[in-house]
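User: Run a structure prediction on this.
Assistant: Running it now.
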Amino acid sequence: MKHARLISSIVLFASSFLALIAAANPSWTLLGPSGLTFPLFRSGSTSVYDPSSNRIILFAGLSDDAAAGDPRLNDVWVETNANGLGGTGAWSNLIPSGSPQVRSDHSAVYDAANNRMIIYGGCGAVPTSNGCLPIADNVWVLSNANGIGGTPTWTQLFPTGGPPPARQGHQAVYDPTTNSMIVWAGQNGGGNGCGTFSDVWVLSHANGLGGTPNWTQLSTTGGPPPGQYFSTAVYDSANNVLTVFGGTGLLGTTCGLTNAVWALSHANGTGGTPVWTNLVPQGAPGAPSNRQATFAIYESSSNTMTIFGGSARNKALNDSWVLSHANGIGGTSTWTKLSPSGQQKPVAATRWNNGGIDSVNNRMIMFGGGFSEGPLWSTWVLTDANGQ
């Protein structure tokens, strides 16, 4: 009887282990540019993901069309079936142009409960050797952002407080529990990549509902992280922690790339003093290489951050990594490199601020980006994105 129970336990364990291995099989799928027309051909845009409608919402960017003068854009597009499930996806143009001024390298966050996209900052002119002045330093909200439930409509917000110094190449996240947008770092639009900010600002009533929006600068301690220009940031709303990876900034007296990971507690400005903590030091063994303009998602149930690509010195990257204990809580933050299966994988490119996460199906959704030969316009999906 004991032997039977032992054999049964071994079989059960083996079955569970094999099932776990089978479940954790990251794989890239190219969804393709169905319904594509020229205005989608761009870089420096932002996109957010709406899980309820399974749609990507894309705004603005820089069109690489020399004949047209490489114009900046302010149009809005939507892609259906963005996670690769439920049918073939297709792009449609919600708003051809209008309302917010043209821009690129801005930020966009999404309030899923109210179907509102909030955009802030960005370059207001075509980049040159002297930067991308003037900076677009305003805040706009797009209601009915996924194109369902009513006409998509832009409304400019006029917050009190602050405002933050105008910036581009920054990061922003949305906290649904307090209806606030948290803005981290960025660059002043000048030609120097280290002409950066290391500040954190919180915009209350960020979706334009419930009260007057107001900017508040956080008085943080510790840090700040060195990577302040084109860094990557994700947010754990349950624990109110902002996690930042990579970027360009001052490393001592040198302007360069970093691969450090930092976490900011009390990131929405409530509950205590916001404190920066270095989770993974610069140059740590087993970490991704130094980089900027990397795409990232946060998966709350596994407390993991998954990153893809970015740019290093004179080259783009196309590797995928998962960081455990991404908020610094519950254990040591550790990087694991993924080896996705499949015949195809995204080309080496920057994918900054273009995509989202389908937490229900554990899928990372990534649109567009740019590499040395120009912008990209395809949508990719990574299954089992947290590596589990």
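The helical segments are 2-23.
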